[in-house]
Amino acid sequence: MTAVVEAINLKKTYMLGKVSVNALRGINLKVESGDFLAVLGPSGSGKSTLLNLIGALDKPTEGEMIIEGTDVSGLNDNQLADLRRRVGFVFQFFNLIPRFTAIQNVELSMSIAGMNKAERRKRAEDLLEVVGLKERMNHKPAELSGGEQQRVAIARALANDPRFLLMDEPTGNIDSKTANEVMGLIKKINDDKAVTIIMVTHDQRLAGQAKRTVQMFDGLIVQDVVN
Amino acid sequence: MKATDVFSYALSAIKLRKLRAGLTTLGVIIGIAAIVALLSLGQGFQNSITQQFEKGFATDTLIVSPRSFGIGAAASNPLFVNDIQNLTQIENVTMAMPVILRPSYVNATGRTYLVQVTGVDFAEYGNTYNSTFVAGEGTIPYSDPPNNTVIIGARIHDPGQNGTILVDLDDNLEVTWTNYTVAGGIPVAQNKTYVGDVSAVLNEVGGFSFGGPSDLGIYVPLSQAEGFFGTDQCDLIIVQLTNSDNATITGVSDAIRSYYGGQVTVTSPSAVLDIISGIFSSVELFLGGIAGISLLVAGIGIMNIMIVSLMERTREIGILKALGMKSRTVLTIFLSEALIVGLLGGVIGIGLGWGLANIVARSGFLNMGRQVGGANQAGFGGGLTINPVLSPTLLAGALAFGLLVSVVFGLYPAWRASKLKPVEALRYE
Predict the structure, then answer these.
(1) Is B69 left (phi over 0), alpha (psi -120 to 50) or beta?
(2) For residue B115, how far is the Cα from the chain centroid?
């Protein structure tokens, strides 16, 4: 197994107004291909910051963030954007484009990657079928339930064949019954498609469903267990 | 991201807020329409005037006139009919002809009209103004005209240009004028009447003439004019030159001025034409500038609305960047939105401005000197038709200016959008 993600003494400091916050204080982490990692921790423990760094949304203040062999620190804006295309993001608040239908939202990430219309249409339909939303593909986010929106977001995240999926509280904004369905889908994707998944959550029960759990506190990893 | 996808993404953002986009576009439409309407009318106006002048002009002539005009001008008028012998001696002068002008009244169909009677040598006049001193009806007796010959302009014949004939060919035309004789130092006015026989009606010349034939003119042989106006002086001397070079015009003008000891004004029609063109260019520039300001205001509107839009869509930009969109693609999307507004506004604005210019031109709002006249004294109008001109330069220029303004004002918001940091943009509420 090869490491898809490797963090070496990773530190991130950002300014909140005039106060500097040490969000990450030296993280060492290795995620192997095909793994399903849950990052657990209370609010402010730095889990979202870690996820943003893994997703190349941000650059570390210190240390190395190596994604598929490339250190993110040395990349420019364009290279970071290219890297993000190989990462699938799933957010707590879904972050779909409200004016687009479900299928258009899924198509968007492929359109950004430069795929032609016919090809991405076909693929978007297939992906919506995988997440069980094919019959609702022409509905806009406002016409979909939270669980449905999150499934569209997962389909979108999978669109560009990502090497790994990053999920920030993917079930944090949906009811527990739907949350179970979504978790089932996530596990299925991890099993069937061998997509590496890194999921941030503060829900111990959800973390238990992952293959490995990392516990964070105050910007440090305090526990790392294989379930 | 493919260009077509960028464009359709930009379009979808515009469609989302139709009223807002519509109002922003309206600003551009008004600006472009104002530019197109004003400049096409201005160009049309300039063309009409230039055409009229060119028709009534001969560029290889000089017009010599007394330095000041006034009642009883005889005292200060240095121009004499027989000056022409001396003037033709000047180098580069081929011919000089005296012109006698008198304001007179014609009586026709029970009304009195104020006209200008012009006494000229028909042969020389016809030679210089060979495109305008041409008979539309009847014939001009160029050599040895009978004494009571009268030639009338097209508007004297048919003032309204509607077939209602005021003075017809072969009519006896009664002309009344006032002679001033000086008795004991006091000018005495004396009315005289002359009945002429209309032998020709000139072709229509157009609204203006400068020295040359006019639609409102009445022409009599020079010798006749001398006789019944009781004068051996003339009001203009038209000097025909060998060519219309600037050097010739300047040289002869100087020679004539020095011959009269500076008591005359020598006017070159081509110089006048240049001055008029110059004035029109400045006026057009001024009008265009005013219209341009309205377009700048529209540009500020675009910028304003794009900044608002940028704030509303901060999160959206964060999503796009998280999905791997490059900063320059974000920039292109926002610029495309501005470009669509500019293009739409430009195309509609050009259409609207062109329509407006035609409506204004047809309404006759700008037609000059339609009818001037009093209770029992009717006047003649010098009609000038303006056809707005939408030159390819104006078309392309207006469109380009519209696009330029929208892109320039869209640049800052687009740049700000592209510079948003994905993490911060995603956090934005």
Answers:
(1) beta
(2) 24
Each residue's pLDDT tens digit, B33-90: 999 999 998 888 888 877 777 666 677 888 888 876 444 444 567 888 888 888 888 8
Give me B220's structure tokens: 């009599």
Q: What is the DSSP letter of A72?
A: G
Determine phi and psi for B195, rounding to 5 degrees.
Answer: -110, 120
Angle at B167 between CA B166 and CA B172, to 5 degrees: 140
Confidence of residue A29 (pLDDT cuts 50, 70, 90): very high
User: Strand B149-152 and strand B217-221: pairing?
Assistant: antiparallel
Give the span between the Cα atoms of B65 and B263, in whole angstroms: 9
> Closest Cα to residue A82, out of A189, A162, A197, A193?
A162
Please state whether the predicted TM-score (pTM) of the whole model is above 0.80. Answer: no
Q: Which residues does chain A have within 8 Å of residue B321's beta carbon, measured at their own beta carbons?
A: 57, 81, 84
Q: What does pLDDT average to over chain A?
A: 91
Residues of B in contact with A100 (CB under 8 A): 12
The residues, ordered by sequence, that sit 6+ positions from B18 with a Cβ below 8 Å of its Cβ are none
CA–CA dist B310, A146 (Å, integer): 26
Q: Which of A24, A82, A87, A111 has the highest number of chain B CBs within 10 A, making it the mutation to test binding with B? A: A111
Q: Quick one: tokens of B128?
A: 């210089």
Extents of the domains making up chain B: 3-53+274-427, 61-242
Q: The complex's ipTM?
A: 0.94
What does the DSSP 8-state code read for residue B204?
P
Q: Is A82 on the interface with B (CB under 8 A)?
A: yes
Question: Residue B114: exposed, middle, or buried by beta-carbon count in 10 A (0-12, 13-18, 19+)?
Answer: middle
Confidence of residue A120 (pLDDT cuts 50, 70, 90): very high
User: In 3D, which of B198, B246, B221 has the Cα closest to residue B100?
Assistant: B221
Q: Give the pairing type, strands A220-226 and B236-241.
A: unpaired
Q: What is the mean pLDDT of chain B?
A: 84
